[in-house]
Amino acid sequence: MTQPVNCIPWMTALAFRRQCGLSTLGAEVARHGREAAARCKELGIEPRRIFDERWGQVNTYPWYMLVYAVAK
Hints:
The chain is of the alpha+beta class. It is built from 3 helices and 3 strands; from the N terminus they run E-H-H-E-E-H.
């Protein structure tokens, strides 16, 4: 069975870092999000926004953009 094209998981930088066991300090999460956002912009990918109870609206990114941002 083939999977639909839109099945790539999107998540926040904080969720990604928690899932990978990385530091969740505010400055590091913010840097990670900025790196992912910059790469998305380079490739013409629009981040999606979701509501977060603590922060209000936050961006989500495809997981592979978050992987790229960690590796950078």
